[in-house]
């Protein structure tokens, strides 16, 4: 790789200017341990309980594994006096954020399609959502996300960074690097804009139209009990979608103002949403709660 920068590292400032805010953030990120435990619990339950060996929980297991990889290197930045990251490490973090965020976006659209098939064709569900298709959809989700990340990072490697080192953020993201670049960022910004429109908004539209179809099917059910049961099969996924895209839109559509409010939205998108996913799927899902009880009875 060529030496594309005259500086060797960036300084992640984040929200650390105020010591009280820094202490508060450390407590908040310590809650990441709950995220770790929650997602590991879901992975164990899905893996060992044969009642959950169906497509919905196969995708949920992938989502739980993915959420274990989403929190950036902020705990170390909060604890260390010098909150530095090398240029290469920063670009690697950009790639990781792109890949994991893109994969989660794809998985959520795949899970929306899965819920649509479950509600529209319950008798054919196991035939349509066979293991070969499920594995292919997961590989496709990872593949598209990594391709998207690779394209953006290859374009970003052409950026030159001179003198300015301070990143007013707690992790490396492309929009935060643009003000530090002393070269033309038009090509990189265009690639970022195109990938955001095609990848994230594209997946959002797939989720949106899937739920439009799901809603029309639910409303066509005559009995109240039937409508309630049909809606309960997708309520957990819908809640996760709202948190993911809601916090994502607020984080990435806001202007790069370096404000505390902008960083808090990004904090919610990067950490809070992955922490909430296992809670959403365990507290709102009777099958997961029953599986957890069965596993605990076997262990104790």
Radius of gyration: 21 Å
Beta content = under 5%
Percent helix range: over 70%
Secondary-structure class: mainly alpha
- Tell me the strand order in the biggest sheet: 2-1-3
What is the count of helical runs?
Answer: 13
Arithmetic mean of pLDDT: 78
Sheet bearing the most strands, described?
3 strands, mixed
Would you write up a description of this structure?
- The protein is mainly α and 300 residues long.
- Helices cover 72% and strands 3% of the residues.
- It has 13 helices and three strands.
- The chain has helices at residues 19-30, 32-48, 55-67, 74-79, 87-120, 125-128, 131-156, 174-177, 186-220, 224-232, 235-253, 260-283, 286-299, and strands spanning 9-12, 84-86, 166-167.
- Strands 2-1-3 form a three-stranded mixed β-sheet.
- Helix 2 (32-48) packs parallel to helix 12 (260-283) and helix 5 packs parallel to helix 9.
- The protein starts with 8 loop residues before the first strand and ends with a helix.
How does the SSE layout of this entry go?
Layout: E1 9-12, H1 19-30, H2 32-48, H3 55-67, H4 74-79, E2 84-86, H5 87-120, H6 125-128, H7 131-156, E3 166-167, H8 174-177, H9 186-220, H10 224-232, H11 235-253, H12 260-283, H13 286-299
Parallel strand pairs: 1-3
Antiparallel strand pairs: 1-2
In short:
With 300 residues, the protein is an all-alpha fold. It has helices spanning 19-30, 32-48, 55-67, 74-79, 87-120, 125-128, 131-156, 174-177, 186-220, 224-232, 235-253, 260-283, 286-299; strands spanning 9-12, 84-86, 166-167. The protein has a three-stranded mixed sheet.
